[in-house]
Amino acid sequence: MKLTTDTFSTEFLRLAGDFAERKFLLGISGGADSMVLADLCLRLNFRFEIAHINYKLRGEDSEKDEALVRHFAEENGIAHHIYKVSASDGKPRHSVQIWARNLRYDFFFKLLSERNLAAVLTAHHLDDQLETFLINLSRGSGIKGLGGIPAKSDKILRPLLNFTKDEIYDYAEAHGVIFREDLSNFSDDYLRNRVRHDVSPKLKKVFPNFLSGFGESIQHLNSANAFIQREIVKAFSEIFVDGDDENFRLNREKLLGKDEFLSREIIRRLGFSGEEIAKVLSAESGKMLRSRTHEIWITRQEIICRTRSRNKQ
């Protein structure tokens, strides 16, 4: 699908719904994807503000990214919010990407609240979706994980998700969108980059229409997942005995009488995964088990559940 103001507007309105007339927050890095997103929103006269984070991880390049975003906002009279990472934000302990993502979304949601904005728009695209799918596939993810990046979730909208990286570059070239390339994207230090450089191109070479077919398959997966989630909620209500969000009891006999997939998914919602789920379903009466979110006690008739306090997790 060619990226134009018309095709983008259609995707945006589909996702935004009742939010469409309100003001949004655009997460802008200075790269091609987010600068194209900003250009599209500007041309369509959307009401929006801009947020940018300078992680100070790439020296002068980080400063140039910030300068580009600031210049775009000031030139077009757009309110903008720049967050410079400081020592108080700590350093990444394991994954730089997870650390950066947490900082980014904490900043975004803080601005949503303070500025009374409807939602965050991010520039994730179909190639990002493919990379996420392949990574999750390699980890044995279920249908929810294979559905990849949601187009809409928790006040985050991703209106470029059905467009490819090439389509975004084509738009940038056609409309003279100025952007910066993040040189770290060309490194193979991260798994996502290795998938991007080594795996995705081979799939596209063997299957020329791979991305368009993949996009349709993702939509089918997400439709199936939506149905499954409704069935899980229904099944949970049928085995629920009593309690509240913190402490509740489930009918063990009814749980074990459900389809194996449903019973496993119900236990998964209690913070258990993989082999832990099997242990819960086969546990003898009197057994106590802990997940990252819950403690459960097995009796002959029931599973007694208690949410673990955050400071004990």
What would you call the structural class? alpha/beta
Strand content is 5-15%
The whole-angstrom Rg is 23 Å
Q: What's the shape? A: globular
Q: What's the total number of strands?
A: 11
- Alpha-carbon distance between the two ends: 46 Å
Strand order of the largest sheet: 3-2-1-4-6-5
Largest sheet: 6 strands, mixed
Give me the CATH architecture of the largest domain, please.
3-Layer(aba) Sandwich
What share of residues is helical? 40-55%
Task: Write the CATH homologous superfamily of the largest domain.
Answer: HUPs
The low-confidence runs, each spanning 5 or more residues with pLDDT under 50, are: none
The averaged pLDDT comes out at 92
CATH C-level name of the largest domain:
Alpha Beta
